[in-house]
Fold each of these.
Amino acid sequence: MKNRYLGNSGLAVSRVCLGTMTFGNKSWGCDESASQALLDAYLDAGGNFIDTADLYAETVSESILGNILKGKDRDSLVIASKCWFPVGDTPNARGLSRKHIVEACEASLKRMQLDHIDLYQIHGPDPYTPIEETMSALDDLVRSGKVRYIGCSNLYAWQIVKANAVARQCNYAPFISGQYLYNLIRRDIETEILPACVDQGMGILCWSPLASGLLTGKYRGVDIPDPGLRFKEVGEILNDRFIWKEALELVDLVCEIGQDLGKSPVTVALSWILKDYAITSVLAGARNVEQLAPSLESGEWDLPDEQCERLTAKLPREHGYPCDWMKIALLPNFTKTEFEPNRALRFPPLIN
Ligand SMILES: NC(=O)c1ccc[n+]([C@@H]2O[C@H](COP(=O)([O-])OP(=O)(O)OC[C@H]3O[C@@H](n4cnc5c(N)ncnc54)[C@H](OP(=O)(O)O)[C@@H]3O)[C@@H](O)[C@H]2O)c1
């Protein structure tokens, strides 16, 4: 399994991270013994990076992870978790207050039977808590040794930059990673979030890299998915998020390219994401070892340039304003040097 540094940090992680949202999920997930088999297959493939959250399976994912990590070489692993979603009915059992962050982290450590979390991420933005309070609480967790690094997920780009500016100003630990929805169908982050993370020296971890299973190609020609599959159980969320005419045509192209190259569409779709060195890891989700196998293959296999370009061109991201304006006003006037300096490389429309 190939490794990458997580942003500007010195933390080396596998480019395929094991997602654990399926662990303990009764409707579209797997039980503890299947979770154990997934972990074993992932470690056998040389992976070192595991992502969970207190939310997953209503905290059961973390408990299962704690049980199945027993006997493993914990120090060789990078274990990530998250807080923010409600874990109880009371007003403070959610969000990013100092009270909740500290209590959530301690509860996660207890469930996972660990003494520290390597990457602790805020799962979303809390508009009700000052970012200074959040960054100070996260920094305390780092200084106390309960957490090694911090990251964020699902923040707006301006919030990422503001949070890290506060951290710099106050000498707090900054975010070293952003965890975001990114796949061949949903490329929203290319406009603002990906450039913000690159600017901040943050690695990017991609969730739902297979569009919750759509990019496997298994729904082609299927009207109603089978029970137990994600698109059956939470279809009201996923249909709007991933399914429209051009997206389905993109799935066809992924399958066609997979067939030409003798690879699973899964391996092709994940390897397309990993072509971009701004991306650190894809988060692989699976219900069983058979599903995980082609995801693990993308930890080693690189998509050839030609097929990568075909996929990139199939459903290009429309950046809208102000990118449109810059195409007219900035491009003809500014790009006059021999090559683009690094600091401009992630500035749409200077790229793509
Ligand atoms: N930060 C966040 O807000 C956030 C949000 C979501 C997820 N995450 C993280 O990202 C991880 C991955 O997310 P995800 O599960 O949505 O990823 P995904 O890769 O888009 O979807 C995984 C699902 O696709 C299907 N699948 C995977 N491989 C397959 C194969 N070879 N053949 C057929 N079906 C296959 C399985 O679902 P079915 O069998 O049900 O079809 C599997 O559970 C999670 O575990 C979690 O760690 C984070």
Note: Residues 253 and 328 are 32 Å apart (CA to CA).
Amino acid sequence: MPTTTAYSAKIDHLQILNEDGILDEKLGKDVLSDEQAVFLYEKLIEYRRIDEIAFTLQRSGRMYTYPQNKGQEACALGSGFALRKGIDWLVPCYRENAALFLHGLPPHLVFLHWMGDERGNAIPAGVNVTPIAIPIGTQMLHATGMAWAFKLKKEDRVVITYFGDGATSEGDFHEAMNFATTFNVPAIFFCQNNQWAISVPREQQMASETIAQKALAYGAQCIQVDGNDIFAVYKATLDARERARAGGGVTLIEAVTYRLGDHTTADDARRYRDPAEVESWQAKDPAIRLRKYIERKGLWDDAKQAALEERAKAIVSEVVKASEGIAKPSPTEMFDSMYAELTPELARQRNTMRTHSLGQYPEQVGLSASPAHR
Ligand SMILES: Cc1ncc(C[n+]2csc(CCOP(=O)(O)OP(=O)(O)O)c2C)c(N)n1
Ligand SMILES: [Mg+2]
């Protein structure tokens, strides 16, 4: 008996705007209007300036740590633009600021988060964004649960969750994909494949040639896109959104991109990355590419750029002011956001923190103890 084919597949790669800022006329028809392209370029620059100031704040001791988004903004911006503000939900990792800001998250909250201030995670009502997730992969399960809830409640909402290439090596990714597809929930799994998981290159942590193909095992739709091409990212996410709304389930989007900065400010990528590699990706910068496109169309020039830079400067200054202008939280605050009710041991730690000498009970130094501690 000859063998038959049990399964076969191919993975599409989508690029609409190439590295030189030239649009594929056929694929790019009616994807983004001129007005939208200019709007997205302006947002990209504005958000990049916010990213740059965060880096500077960290370097000058005014922020604890910060993961730069630089170079990856087309991923977050293009996908975020394809989702409905106030309707769909964004469940991020930590390198998607552009999507969060676009959906109404005040940037200073992200700054507060990285300043170690829990108030940065208090998302305003009406902003459909969950807090930044540092434990790699956990947010994909949260997103899956949310999408399942929306399905059960028959609410017309789609959930997008963001994660990196490294996160697809976590069990959480596979559990979330398996659950999401089995229950056919309206979720989009958006992988920012920036080639590195801190110092581990993609090819050293997985044997699969693409990340998109991991979807096949779970019966999800998938596509690989040029993640520095905002047209391709937008189009793929819009298609995924509409498919999810129509009951077509889950899509895994692999956006091929590159982080131009260090992993975080606690890292020095020069120790493990080839400068030639970084240089080659600098040439593919999504900002340069989009600017070339709008310039060629006569929609942009140096004067407009200068005006944009002025506006961005003012925005950046407001963001810094908002994040540094509020009263510092009390150190005991670190006990207050994890549990609804403190365990007796945590209550003891919280109370003894209020004394000058750690470990002393409040009554030992003349403070009254909290009810939990008595
Ligand atoms: C569960 C867990 N394991 C390890 C870490 C430490 N860690 C922080 S970022 C990171 C790499 C993540 O790489 P990737 O998913 O590719 O995202 P990127 O930082 O490249 O955007 C690791 C291992 C963590 N935060 N959480
Ligand atoms: Mg990565």
Note: Residues 75 and 178 are 24 Å apart (CA to CA).
